[in-house]
Structure formats: C-alpha cells, structure tokens
C-alpha cells in the first residue's frame, strides 16, 4: 500500500481528500490485520500481496518494504512464555533467541527452519549478540551478569558489578568495532522470580541507578556512560557508530518517564554527549484515538532508519514501528498479533527482519539491510 502525502502547494480540497484517502487506506489495512491476526498456521488463507500488515505512513517506507513478500510466523509454541533477544549468527546461519521465563535459549536454522534448544539452563538470559570473533554474548537476569560463551561452550563473566554493588539485570547490548560491549541495565529481571531472581531490597531500583555501560575490550574495565534515562532497554548504533540509540521503558515504574527512544552522540568511541529524544512512541490512529506504547528492542538499517519493536497497546499498534533517520518521524509499521519484544536483521543477505513476539518468532524480507551483523 502506498500512501499519498499532500504538499502545501496543492489545493486545499486535494490535500484534504488525499489525507482522508490515506487515513482510510491505513485504517482498512489495520482492520484487515486484526481480522487475520491469527492466520499464520498451515491452514491459513494465503496473503494477498502487498501484505496489508506492512503499513506506510510516509513514502520513505515504501522504498524499504517489498510488495511480493509476506510476514511469516517461523515458530510458535504455547509453551513459550516470553521470546526475547534475537541475534543472527552468520557463520552458523542460525538465529538464537531467549525464552526468559522458561530459562532457555532457542535456535532456528536457516537451512530447514528447524528449531531446537541451544542452551538449558540459560540464566534467564534476555538479549543476545555476537562479538567480532563470533562468540555469543548474553545479558542475563538470573545472575545479573554479562557473559560470553567461548568456542568450547565455557562461560566467561564479563561484567557483574559496578562501584562495589551488583548490576541490576543486564538487558540488551551491542558491540563496537573496537571490541567494546555497550549494554543497558534497567533492572527488570531482578524484580521478580519469573524472569530471574526476586529483588532483595524490595525497592523499584534495588542495586544500581539505571544506566548504560561500556565494557572496554582492551582492559576489561566497566564504565557507566550515562544515567540520563529512566530505564534503558534496547540499544543500537547508527551505521557509522557516531550515535547510540536507546529505548526508554521507564514508564513501567516511573510516572514522569516519557515513552520514547533517545539518542546520544558517541564521543571518541567511549563516551556519550548531547542526549535527546529521537522519536516518540505516541501514535494517532486513523480513527483519531491517540495511543502510546513502549519500544523495546531496536535495530538500525544501512540508511540509518530505526526499526523498533512496539507493544502494550493492542491491534493497530503492536508490532514494529519504523522511524526515519533524518527526523525520527514514524514512516511505517509492521503489524503483529502479539506484543513484539525485540528485532534483529539477519539471513544470508542480512535483509530479513526477525521479530520475537511473546510466544512466536516472525520474519519478513525487506528492501534494506541491517547496519550491523546482529
């Protein structure tokens, strides 16, 4: 579906008709998505291209989506409780993700779509990524650590405390070309046994002030790069690594917290400066209602656009929101029937967006590539 965006030099009547046509088309797509929200099984009706669940708000998204590809549900299990942390392994051609409450990591093979348990137990891991040597990095709730899995399967703890106090529950992370690992520590898993270990102090923030950290590869030292965010969640770098983006999910515990994605300038690959809002998660639906959910996992494409998982609102909102690199405007959506927790680019050509959604794993091919490998 391609939306018509009126310009100021067009007649007022034309602009109004174009706006109404755009709103009606978007609403129709959302209604279709709601009607078909569970039609992903073998008995589901085929999708009529273009997939109406790929919704454009701006012509920029038309260039990023494909007209002859569907959103696919690659895996679903009623036993899976909260799928999180997808990461692509290029050499192994597989996707790994976490089921946090079940304390396992799962693996999907590109060759034949087979899904198996990769790691059990998994220390209630949340996010996952791979370093430049292909070693898996996991951000664990139960142990409140950042851990690396070596080639022989042994586990190396990279970070577990700061300033003499335990970390909260490392959540998500990204690797810089210099080998440093940047990660968020909002503290969710340390608040409940369901996803980790129950907080011992009974407070909202039991161990550390929420923040973003950097593990220096050359020394192993841990640096706290910012506390200028309520609860940092998903992280990603810009294509040139000169900016760091972070989803703020602090409204889950702090009434004054905005529902947005922040961005900072990366200084000398080590520190952050000039923190500011990049995008708001508030969305006005075609029927005029305004909804605001939360972004969680985020990734950047090679053009600098941000692809953010989104949820906790319902049909017409939950899925993935795409924000333009230049201005942070919402340019498109991928509608899913479940809350989307996280995303990553992968596949042989890195042109496939993988999405973990509550009890399922989804994927869709796109007309761009991930800026980075996972």
Care to describe what's here?
The protein has 374 residues and is mostly beta strands. The chain has one domain (12-365): TolB, C-terminal domain (Neuraminidase, 6 Propeller). The chain is 7% helix and 41% strand. The chain is built from 2 helices and 29 strands. The protein has helices at 12-35, 59-62; strands spanning 54-56, 72-76, 83-89, 94-99, 104-109, 115-119, 125-130, 136-140, 145-149, 155-159, 161-162, 165-166, 173-175, 181-185, 211-215, 222-226, 232-237, 243-248, 260-267, 271-280, 282-284, 290-292, 294-300, 306-311, 319-323, 330-335, 342-346, 352-357, 360-365. The chain has a 5-stranded antiparallel beta sheet. A hairpin with a 3-residue loop joins strand 19 and strand 20. The protein is globular. The relative contact order is 0.14. Residues 1-38 have low confidence and may be disordered.
List keywords for this structure.
5-stranded antiparallel beta sheet, Neuraminidase, disordered N terminus, 29 strands, globular, mainly beta, 4-stranded antiparallel beta sheet, 374 residues
């Amino acid at each position: 579906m391609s939306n018509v965006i009126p310009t100021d030099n067009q007649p007022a009547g034309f602009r109004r008709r174009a706006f109404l046509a755009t709103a009606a088309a978007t609403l129709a797509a959302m209604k279709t998505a709601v009607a078909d929200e569970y039609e992903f099984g073998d008995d589901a009706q085929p999708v009529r291209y273009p997939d109406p669940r790929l919704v454009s708000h701006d012509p920029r998204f038309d260039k990023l989506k494909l007209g002859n590809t569907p959103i696919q549900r690659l895996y679903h299990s009623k036993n899976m409780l909260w799928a999180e942390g997808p990461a692509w392994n290029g050499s192994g051609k597989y996707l790994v993700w976490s089921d946090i409450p079940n304390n396992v990591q799962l693996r999907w093979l590109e060759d034949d779509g087979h899904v198996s348990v990769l790691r059990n137990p998994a220390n209630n891991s949340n996010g996952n990524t791979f370093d430049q040597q292909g070693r898996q990095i996991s951000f664990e709730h139960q142990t409140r650590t950042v851990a690396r899995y070596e080639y022989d399967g042994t586990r190396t703890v990279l970070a577990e405390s700061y300033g003499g106090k335990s970390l909260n529950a490392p959540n998500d992370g990204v690797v810089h070309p210099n080998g440093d690992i940047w990660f968020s520590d909002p503290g969710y898993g340390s608040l409940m046994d369901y996803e980790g270990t129950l907080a011992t102090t009974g407070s909202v923030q039991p161990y550390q002030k929420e923040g973003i950290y950097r593990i220096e590869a050359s020394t192993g030292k841990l640096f706290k790069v910012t506390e200028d965010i309520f609860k940092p969640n998903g992280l990603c770098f810009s294509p040139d690594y000169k900016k760091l983006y972070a989803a703020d999910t602090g409204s889950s515990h702090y009434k004054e917290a905005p529902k947005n994605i922040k961005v900072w300038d990366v200084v000398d690959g080590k520190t952050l400066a000039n923190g500011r809002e990049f995008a708001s998660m508030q969305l006005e639906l075609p029927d005029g209602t305004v909804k605001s959910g939360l972004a969680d996992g985020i990734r950047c494409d090679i053009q600098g656009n941000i692809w953010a998982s989104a949820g906790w609102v319902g049909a017409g909102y939950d899925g993935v929101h795409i924000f333009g690199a230049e201005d942070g405007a919402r340019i498109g959506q991928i509608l899913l029937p479940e809350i989307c927790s996280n995303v990553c680019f992968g596949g042989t050509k890195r042109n496939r967006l993988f999405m973990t959604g509550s009890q399922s794993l989804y994927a869709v091919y796109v007309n761009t590539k991930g800026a980075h490998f996972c």
